[in-house]
Design goal:
By secondary structure, this protein is an alpha+beta fold. The protein has ten helices and 22 strands.
Length: 526
Amino acid sequence: MGWGDLGVYGEPSRETPNLDRMAAEGMLFPNFYSANPLCSPSRAALLTGRLPIRNGFYTTNAHARNGTERRVPSPAPRPQKLPLPRQPILSAGGCSSYQEFCEAGGSVAQNFRVSPRGVPEVSWVPVSRHLGHRPQFHPLKHGFDEWFGSPNCHFGPYDNKARPNIPVYRDWEMVGRYYEEFPINLKTGEANLTQIYLQEALDFIKRQARRHPFFLYWAVDATHAPVYASKPFLGTSQRGRYGDAVREIDDSIGKLLELLHDLHIADNTFVFFTSDNGAALISAPEQGGSNGPFLCGKQTTFEGGMREPALAWWPGHIAAGQVSHQLGSIMDLFTTSLALAGLTPPRDRATDGLNLLPALLQGWLMDRPVFYYRGDTLMATTLGQHKAHFWTWTNSWENFRQGIDFCPGQNVSGVTTHNLEDHTKLPLIFHLGRDPGERFPLSFASAEYQEALSRITSVVQQHQEALVPGQPQLNVCNWAVMALQALRQERHCRWVPGGLVLHCEWRRPQGPPARGKSGANSDLAS
C-alpha cells in the first residue's frame, strides 16, 4: 500500500473513512518509512527492529539487487535461522504488559494494558509472513502461540507438479491451499481472504480480551498483485480493483476498532497503521496504488518505494488531530512495543528501531537518520529534511525494454537511471520539504549542499564503521517456499549440486485426503 492510498493523505476519491477517522482521532506521521522497498526484508525488520543488512534478509548476488539475480550465480550457505530476539514484546513469555499488535495490509495496531501476571499469555499471527517456510521459521517457533495464514503471498495458481499451490495453515496443520480450498478468481479479482482473516482476528480478540493479555499481528495482502476483494466490495471503488481492496481493508480496520470499543478496551489500545513498502507501480494502473507526490514505487529507494502511510491511535493517551514530523521507521514498532511493556531492547545485538513514545505522547522530535538499502548497498540516507543519494537506479535497461517499469511516467533525468550510477564521491542531495518528488537536486556549490553533505557523511561513516552485516539469506531463489512444513520428509526431495538448495518433486495423491487429515503430509505422494 502506498503513501497516497488514504484519503487523509490526499487520495481524491476519499474512500478510506475508517482510516481517515483513525487519523483524526490520533496522530498522523507524514515522514514514516519501511526498512526496505520489498516486503520480506521489511517484515523481517519489523519483527527484529533491525535493518535487513543486519538480520540477513538481503542478497549479495549482484550490486544493489533487491532479491535473487538469476543471471549472476553465487554460492550461498543453507538458509540460517532468522535471529529473532528471545525476549521481545513478540514473545509470549517475555513481556510485562498486555499487548495486542495487529498489522493489516502492512498496517499495525496494538493494545496495551497491565496484566495481573505481567506476562502476555496468548499471541497470534495471521496471514502471509514472507519469512521462511521451513519448520524452524514457523511463527510458533518464535514466540507466537497461534497462527493462521501462509508462509508466502497468494501467488499462483501453480501446476502442483514442479510447484504446488501455496499452503495455508492453522498452527502446524495445513488447512488448504490458495486457489483450491481458498479460491482466488484472477479474472474477476474475487476472493474472500480478507474476510476470512478479519473473522479470525475478531474471534481471537473476543476469545482472549477478557481472559488473557494478548498480542495480535495482522497482515492482509489484498493490495499485493494479484489484487483481490470480496464480492460486496468488487466494483465499488472509483479506483478500480485496487481501490476495492483498499476499501475492504479500511472496512476491516473499522470493524477491529469498533470491537475494541464494544469490549471497552479502546482506551487501553494503541493502534498503528502502516505498510511494508510503497505501492507497486509496476502493476499500475489496473492493480497499482498511489505513492502521492513521491518518486517511483516498490523495488526502489526513492521516496515512493519506502515512505509509507502511518497512523497512531490510542484514545486517552494520544491527543486527537496530531501531526508528527518525526522521522519514523517500521523498525520503531519493535522498540516502541518493548518500551510499552517496560522492557529494553536486547543488548547482544545492534537495534535500529527508535522508541517513538516521546513523539507519540509528548510531541518530541528526535534527530535520527533513515538508511535506504537495496540488497547489500546503501543507496541513500535521509537526515532531517535532506536526502543524499549515493547510488541511483530503477531497473536495468533490459527489464525496462520488456515493459517492467518501477517509475511509470516519472522520468527524472540523471535520477531515475537504468544504469547503476555511482554518486558516492558527490551525492545527489534533495530537500524533501521543498522537493518531495526528488526532481531538483541541490547545487553542488551551494552552502546548503555543503552543510547537508557534512552532516550526512558523518552519520553514514558512524553507521558503516559499526555495521556487522548478517549472513545473506536471499542469494538463492528456492521454489520450495511453495512447499509444506513437512519438508523434513526428504524422500521426495534432493539437494541440488553444491548442496545449497533443496529441490522437491511434487505429486498430487490419486484420491482426496481423508477427512480431518488436512495436515502437511496429505499432499505428499506415498
